[in-house]
Amino acid sequence: MAAVIRVAAVDDDRMLLDGLANWVAGVPDLRLVGTGATVGELLRQVVVPVDVVLLDLVLRDRSDAAENVRRLTALGCRVLVLSVWAQPDQVVATFAAGAGGYVTKDHDLAALAVAIRQVHAGQPVFSTELAFACLRDTRPVRPQLSPRERAVLLAYASGMTLKQAARHLGIRPETARTYLDRVKAKYHDLGRPTRTKLDLAERVREDQLEAG
């Protein structure tokens, strides 16, 4: 007998979650262990390990889909992203963040069960929508930073405080902050969040940035 896959779902459609619970109850190798309208709500409620999380691409709390994927995969969950329609940039960003699959909600339940099993087995789930999204993805791998943005990033990530970086570059601290915020925003838009100094230092290392 196949091992039971523990499934959880994050969606703000209550009727969909109720219907999902009824459907999973009739599938021998799937067990629904928790649901939530947000990732935070799910994590507060689930007390057992989760194998696969079904994650709605667009939630009412306006949380970032890629960040939701990162939160879940960091806990060891595999993620299957669901959506009413394909949104190319967001879909590609979720895969870059670690999602294992993506399907639109117009697929039938049998197809969803197959996708869950594939994601659980570590097999990526590709669809026509995903292929279309990847073909249309024109995002650069690295953000385009201005010379001043790069200078502030390198100074700050090297270990300087923001005030020290500003003094080093001969600019005001609030100006340095503005440049740093722009750097963070550009990385975030590429699905590469940089909230902390350690994150920034890691991006400098990954992108092999040098003073120019």
UniProtKB/TrEMBL annotation:
Source taxonomy: Bacteria, Bacillati, Actinomycetota, Actinomycetes, Micromonosporales
SUPFAM superfamilies: C-terminal effector domain of the bipartite response regulators, CheY-like
A UniProt-annotated Pfam family: Sigma70_r4_2
Domain Response regulatory: residue ranges: 6-120
InterPro entries listed in its UniProt record: CheY-like_superfamily, RNA_pol_sigma70_r4_t2, Sig_transdc_resp-reg_C-effctor, Sig_transdc_resp-reg_receiver, Tscrpt_reg_LuxR_C, WalR-like
GO BP field: DNA-templated transcription initiation; phosphorelay signal transduction system
Protein family membership: Belongs to the sigma-70 factor family. ECF subfamily.
Protein name from the UniProt record: Two component transcriptional regulator, LuxR family
UniProt keyword annotation of Amino-acid biosynthesis present: no
4-aspartylphosphate sites (modified residues): D56
Organism: Micromonospora coxensis
Alphabetical UniProt keywords: DNA-binding, Phosphoprotein, Sigma factor, Transcription, Transcription regulation
Gene Ontology MF terms: DNA binding; sigma factor activity
